[in-house]
Amino acid sequence: MAAWAQLFAAGVLEIVMAFALKASAGTTRPAPTLLAVLAALGSIWLLAAAVRTLPLGVAYAVWTGIGALGVSLVGIAIFAEPPSPARLLCMAFVFGGIAGLKVLEQS
């Protein structure tokens, strides 16, 4: 279970990295740029720890899925990006894929 927690934390750091990159204004602002770099390094470190136990394909798919879903939600919640029905449906598919991989990996 620790590997799944590491993988989830890695995905959350991916979201932090993307948010910080947006705030960095093209890396012209030092503090958000540094946060983005540190979040990226932490995310990769946690992913590396998770793949010691989890299969690489599952871990990578879940990691990128958490990042993609999370960044999409941040875009809607904070940057007022439109939550169109098609976009929400696609996000639901990503969530379903993440959940499916976790369930199948534990069976």
β-strand percent reads under 5%
Q: Could you give the count of β-strands?
A: 0
Radius of gyration: 15 Å
Give the tally of structural domains: 1
Model description:
By secondary structure, the chain is mainly α. Helix 1 packs antiparallel against helix 2. The chain is flat and about 40 Å long.
Name the descriptors:
single chain, flat, 107 residues, 0% strand, 4 helices, mainly alpha
Task: Give the arrangement of secondary structure elements.
Elements: H1 2-23, H2 30-50, H3 56-78, H4 85-106
Quick summary:
The protein is mainly alpha-helical and 107 residues long. The protein is built from four helices and no strands. The protein is flat, with a radius of gyration of 15 Å.
